[in-house]
Please model this.
Amino acid sequence: MNARAFEVGDAIRFGWATAKAHLNLVVVLTLVTLLAGGLPSAIAEGVVRGSPGLAALFRIAGTIISLIVSIGATRVSLRLHDGGTATVGDLFAVDGPLLWRYFLASLLYWVVVAVGLVLLVIPGIIFSVRYLFYGYAVVDRNAHPVEALAQSAAATKGVWGALSLFGLVIIMLNILGALALGVGLLVTLPVSALATAWVYRRLTGTTPAAEVPATV
Model:
């Protein structure tokens, strides 16, 4: 039996219990994350559509902000998992080297998945699960892009089935959140993030990022 195997129910229960313990905080953080990531693109589509150059600038800004808050949200979920706390400012406390590494790792991840999807679809699904934790490796372990994918592959080895089931449960959970007039996402998204942080810690047994030297 795989010593790193996990129960999906345990992950979801942890996510729910931790979100409930920090309910006001996670709702505010999730709302800020959604607004920060979506507002520039909404402005580009609805306000400055008649100016292609300006609209493009807003879309680029939206992409950059989305990357920043994705890094921040990953860091916050790990902090809450580890018994710490967070503030709204933590969503945006990202330095240039980390942002660059995260961007390159994300680009590499999606290229690998896209190539896999072209190769009869199934390889793309497998790659999407195998390299699922690349972002956590960058944020939590200061990993470079290729290292991040390699660390994720090592962490997910032998637990593909459990991770696939976990992903389906997370998707269904957030569909239910969206059906509740979208408001439910303010709870289901942080539950999902915290459950994912639990799975990451379970599979890697890693220490907090503060104990890992940063590299450019």
